[in-house]
Amino acid sequence: MTMTLEELTTWTGLSVLDHLERSARIPVIDGLQAQGDLIVVPMPIADVTVWDRAGWRPVPPEGVELLRGAAGGNPHTLVAEPGRARWTADVRDALGLAIGVFTATAPVYLLHPEHGGSGCAPGTYVVRRQREHEGHRSRLVAD
Fold it and tell me: For residues 98 and 81, what is the distance between their CA atoms, to the nearest angstrom?
């Protein structure tokens, strides 16, 4: 079952900007997806390792703020139904881009005030910063 942006913001108490269409259905997918300066990568295709003694935390009702935009901007928040997802930042990533890993037994959502929502199907995912390339230089995407 998919959820609308209005249902998601009502359920979480988090807000989005007025220009977003509240009646839009949020797709739930099991592949790569990007939201501003974040990218969500299914664990099987990510070169990231979770520490053996990782501190897994349940995703609380108010969600987990994964990343705040440049200069204290808007947050990317991971939200899930109680008991359906857990999160850890205890990861090894050779690229240094991983923020953490979450695993979910039901759809979970990323919510951002400017970008709206995106949904992840049950599974395990790595959340990374995005990097952009210009010529021979690369830099983190600033949202």
Answer: 24
Do residues 103 and 85 touch, judged by C-beta distance below 8 A?
yes
Angle at the Cα of 70 from the Cα atoms of 126 and 120, rounded to 5 degrees: 30
3-class DSSP state of 18: coil
- For the chain, what are the domain ranges? 3-140
Task: State the Cα angle at 65 between 75 and 6, rounded to 5°.
Answer: 65
For 73-129, what is each residue's pLDDT tens digit? 778 899 999 999 999 999 999 888 999 999 999 999 999 888 889 999 999 999 998
Share of residues in the chain with pLDDT > 70 (%)? 86
Give residues with Cβ within 8 angstroms of 131, minimum separation 6.
97, 138, 139, 140, 141
Q: How far apart are CA 66 and CA 107, in angstroms?
A: 17
Mean pLDDT along residues 23-47: 91
Radius of gyration of the chain (CA): 15
Rounded to the nearest 5 degrees, what angle is found at the Cα of 60, between the Cα atoms of 1 and 45?
A: 65
SS3 15: coil
Short-list 34, 26, 30, 20, CA closest to 7: 26
